[in-house]
Amino acid sequence: MRIRNLYDPPTLKDRDPVVPWVPNSMTASARTTAEWCEITVAGEGVGWLYPPLQDGLAKVVWEKADGGNLIGISNNDTVAIYPGVTVLVRLCGYEDASLVTMLKNLGLPLVFAASDHPY
Q1: DSSP category for residue 67
Q2: CA 16, 21, 23: angle at the middle one, nearest 5?
Q3: Taking Cα atoms as reference points, which of 58, 65, 69 lies closest to residue 108?
Q4: CA atoms within 13 A on the CB side of 2
Q5: Is 70 helix (H, G, I), strand (E, B) or coil?
Q6: Which residues contact 68 (CB under 8 A, 6 or more apart)?
Q7: CA distances from 7 to 23, 59, 92 (A)
Q8: Is 3 helix (H, G, I), strand (E, B) or coil?
Q9: For the whole model, what pTM was predicted?
Q10: Is residue 88 within a helix (H) or strand (E), and if so which, with residue range?
Q11: Distance between CA atoms of 68 and 23, rounded to whole angstroms?
Q12: What distance in Å separates the CA atoms of residue 38 and residue 99, rounded to the nearest whole number?
């Protein structure tokens, strides 16, 4: 099986920083460092991070620096960003949303550094 990452390059250090949307009572900023994208949200509540969408994309997964993942919600692939600092290192997009569930069930990584990764 080959799993295709639709983002090229998938590492966020090669992209402009993505600032999440937050309500008027909150503030948000983002900056790209040598290794990742650092997002800071202040206030009470939740912000929403919108991925840079591409045609044919069914599901989006962001990889956090701590090894965790943020998986986009079904209707528009946004993810909740809570107050504090969130550090993102990769973004992966899938043509078939069921691949994300399959990878999770198999214990395989959800995001990849390569554009096409064999398993």
Answers
A1: S
A2: 150
A3: 69
A4: 7
A5: strand
A6: none
A7: 29, 12, 6
A8: strand
A9: 0.80
A10: strand 84-94
A11: 25
A12: 27
30: which strand partners? 39
> Could you tell me the two tokens for 109?
């990584």
For residue 56, CA distances in Å to 1, 5, 53, 74, 109 come to: 20, 12, 9, 14, 21
Q: How many CB atoms lie within 10 A of CB 9?
A: 13
Q: Give the residue, 111 or 101, on which the prediction is more confident.
A: 101
Distance CA 24, CA 41 (A): 12
Residue 75 has what pLDDT?
76
Q: Tokens at residue 4, please?
A: 């295709």
Strand ranges (E), 5-73: 27-32, 37-42, 47-49, 59-64, 69-71
